[in-house]
């Protein structure tokens, strides 16, 4: 039995996003965090760690087509608070269209200090990352979290998901507390969310 037209309309943006992701992954596999956009349960789990009532900016690294961005907005985070740092110019154009009140920054999240130096008006209340950290050398990962903590308010979370069974950033960083979600089996592939806070 064919889907009703309303169901087809809801499925089409997701299918379009999957095609965009796959095309970008084929062109530059190591720049992409995943072959497909994050699943809804994973995106909601990440958004759960963000305070929707704060007025401070929320920085999202590597939003792609906006799966996690959508979960942040659904959680109650005002679009005006969102600072979306995306490397891919095609995804930037898509994000500007979908989230017109957000600030979309085309730049390299792995050079976060340079990318954000004149963007934030106040310390961020969260940094939410969809970057493929486990594909990067450990020094690159540590530099990223150092720069993220420099942009964050004291105690604010750096939120990262990973498909790997080990944390993307070591749990033993001095002065940093960590917590992890349960493994999200409904995501393909299964993922876990790690949250880091500077003590």
From TrEMBL:
<protein>
    <submittedName>
        <fullName>Methyltransferase</fullName>
    </submittedName>
</protein>
<keyword id="KW-0694">RNA-binding</keyword>
<dbReference type="Pfam" id="PF00398">
    <property type="entry name" value="RrnaAD"/>
</dbReference>
<dbReference type="GO" id="GO:0032259">
    <property type="term" value="P:methylation"/>
</dbReference>
<keyword id="KW-0808">Transferase</keyword>
<keyword id="KW-0949">S-adenosyl-L-methionine</keyword>
<dbReference type="InterPro" id="IPR029063">
    <property type="entry name" value="SAM-dependent_MTases_sf"/>
</dbReference>
<dbReference type="InterPro" id="IPR001737">
    <property type="entry name" value="KsgA/Erm"/>
</dbReference>
<dbReference type="GO" id="GO:0008168">
    <property type="term" value="F:methyltransferase activity"/>
</dbReference>
<keyword id="KW-0489">Methyltransferase</keyword>
């Amino acid at each position: 039995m064919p889907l009703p037209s309303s169901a087809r309309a809801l499925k089409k943006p997701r299918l379009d996003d999957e095609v965009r992701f796959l095309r970008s992954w084929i062109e530059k596999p190591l720049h992409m965090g995943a072959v497909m956009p994050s699943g809804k349960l994973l995106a909601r789990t990440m958004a759960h760690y963000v305070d929707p009532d704060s007025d401070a900016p929320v920085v999202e690294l590597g939003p792609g087509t906006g799966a996690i961005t959508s979960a942040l907005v659904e959680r109650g985070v005002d679009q005006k608070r969102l600072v979306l740092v995306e490397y891919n110019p095609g995804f930037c154009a898509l994000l500007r269209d979908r989230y017109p009140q957000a600030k979309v920054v085309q730049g390299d999240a792995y050079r976060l200090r340079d990318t954000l130096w004149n963007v934030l008006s106040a310390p961020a209340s969260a940094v939410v990352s969809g970057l493929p950290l486990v594909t990067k050398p450990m020094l690159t990962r540590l530099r990223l979290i150092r720069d993220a903590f420099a942009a964050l308010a004291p105690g604010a979370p750096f939120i990262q998901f990973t498909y790997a069974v080990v944390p993307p950033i070591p749990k033993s960083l001095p002065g940093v507390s960590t917590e992890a979600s349960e493994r999200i089996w409904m995501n393909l592939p299964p993922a876990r969310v790690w949250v880091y806070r500077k003590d």
